[in-house]
From TrEMBL:
Signal peptide: 1-25
Subunit structure as annotated in this protein's UniProt entry: Homodimer.
Species of the source: Sphingomonas sabuli
InterPro entries for the chain: A-glucoronidase_C_sf (IPR037054), GH (IPR017853), Glyco_hydro_67_aGlcAse (IPR011395), Glyco_hydro_67_aGlcAse_N (IPR005154), Glyco_hydro_67_C (IPR011099), Glyco_hydro_67_cat (IPR011100), Hex-like_dom2 (IPR029018)
Name of this protein: Xylan alpha-1,2-glucuronidase
One GO cellular component term noted in the UniProt record for this chain: extracellular region
Enzyme class: hydrolase
Domain Glycosyl hydrolase family 67 catalytic: 154-461
Active site, UniProt feature: E311 (proton donor), D384 (proton acceptor), E412 (proton acceptor)
Amino acid sequence: MRAASATMRAVAAVALAHSAAPAAAQRSDGYDLWLRYDPLPPAERASYRLLLRSAFFAGDSGSMQAAREELQRGVGAMVGAAPIAVASLGNADLIVGTPAALPALKSLGLPLNAAGPEGFVLRRIAWKGRDVIVVAGNSDVGVLRGIFALLRRIQTGQPLESLNVVEAPRYALRLLNHWDNLDRTVERGYAGQSLWDWHKLPGWVDPRYTDYARANASVGINGAVLNNVNASAEILTPPYLEKVAAIAGVLRPWGVRTYLSARFTAPIAIGGLKTADPLDPQVQRWWRSKADSIYRLIPDFGGFLIKANSEGQPGPQDYGRSHADGANMIADALAPHGGTVMWRAFIYSPEEVDRARSAYDEFKPLDGKFRSNVILQVKNGPIDFQPREPFHPLFGQMPATRVGMEVQITKEYLGFATHLAFLGALWEEVLDSRTATPRARVAGEISALAGVANIGTDRNWTGSHFDQANWYAFGRLAWNPTLRSSDIAQEWSRMTWGNDRQVTETVVPMMLRSRDAVVDYMTPLGLTHLMATGHHYGPGPWVDDLERRDWNPTYYHRATRDGIGFDRTAGGSNAVSQYAGAVQHCWSSLECVPDRYLLWFHHVPWTKRLRSGRTLWADMVKRYDDGVSAVREMRRDWASLNGRIDAERYREVTAFLKIQEQEAKWWRDASIAYFQSINGLPLPPGHAPPEHALEHYKSLRFPYAPGN
Ligand code: BDP
């Protein structure tokens, strides 16, 4: 009865082989992400091993098999021996299942009500005279998430003595948005090609899709939009839907549902219709029958993500209809199958007085007009995934609409894959922002979280080792937006770089400072969107000749000889009036607005004294320098870990930090040179002049920068 299967023996053998090497010497190319399951120190192993000798799994669904294999893989590698799967409860240390599959669980008084459909309960209890650990959920996927939570505890060295945990996700939809094209390029992708090998699908289903799904499952991400929001209609043709179905089949057991971006004019492009007017009955019929055919192939299909009437994409306004008309028509096609439409609020027109006002002006009047299976997907800030923005004014102000937040995990505006910028801090700041609306904080105003993925075919998945932390943090915050980014960084660091205390105590502070460093060397004090044209690589604050005025950096900073900043108060665009009560009041006032949003809301004289006692100009220069120094310090801190991190990953991070320092200095120098050319002011004492003249920075060209 206790005979170990061949797989389990293999897992144990691998684990033993691993255990021979000291932790820091474990070679890694980053493929394992945070699921490395490094061997624990011998003393810890022994104590965990006693608790995890055998396991009883109730049921055999795909999710249960995944749970069992993950437990065996993880415990086997960390503890040195995988739990033996036993056929009866009587001799199990670990009992895993749902009350539906294992009615005995019902008598234990577990708080399963609080776990919801996707959550779990972890409990240490005495059962029939035995000391056991129970991993229970209301669904097999919930159980799987419980197994990952248990493994995380072991990975981060937490005791299982008084295990008593119940968790349920805060948001029902926790989705990655891949901006992947059918030719395998990735818009704003810095980690290689698209994972989805469309040409070879469905005949060849890359095993990597399973590891992708595992990683998502481990942090609770429960959906993936496979293709770019700038969508090709081709994805909705029968051959591509077969390919999509093959991917969906891999993701399903891991609790990850498949979604697609849909092109609004697909009825014309692939349906042979003359119009895509949402009020045209033929168009409505086309979408209904398209939805029906998708659900025949993919019964748990999640729904569509739609970018309409934005940056040249077609949409309902092309037919004189509203965003609500468009969204509702597609929502009606999905409703019989339980599907959702995520309708993006990212729109802005050149006629607007201020781009930051656009989405609110367009969508606020539509509150209450959307079907219940529509989610309005709003970017975290009113412009566009910048290093820092105030929260979007639509949060909290669409009481009769389901609103989701979209963040960008890929670092289009924060230094691509080479700059270390831990975005957990950025998202925590937004989710935690006070709104002056009924739910008081942004996290309470939303019902879904979507993240533009940073994943590609690079061996380490995300283009850099530290960018893995952003994928991880996105999932953790979507599951529980009240988690602190410092705790997330700590967990991730331990799981990724090991439990060596010196490593954790060095890496976590680096991560927590990193995002502010980027803000400082790129866009301090509320400046925004000063990146070079198109690819957004490097500085371009001087650019003022683009086809649309609201694409020009000069539009955003409005620097003149006298001052700098975008006046969004009543005297200017009055975008600040879109915020509610106390928030509007504070941000309108120069006395109250925090420094971090100063130039976002106000046009301020260069000579104005800030809270620091310095003039605006002196403060700005100091911040540019602080940003560069912070990167220099990160390099120094990282160097102190030489020998404590495996050589391959150590070397790559070392090289990337060097690139980051060079580029931070480039940003600093180019920005100072440019703003000095506008204000004619000398540099404050103690700050070095830019290395080159402004013309040098203006002359730099990067036609092949990635992701464009
Ligand atoms: C911008 C990106 C562009 C995207 C757009 C969007 O530069 O590539 O298509 O966002 O979110 O930031 O639709």
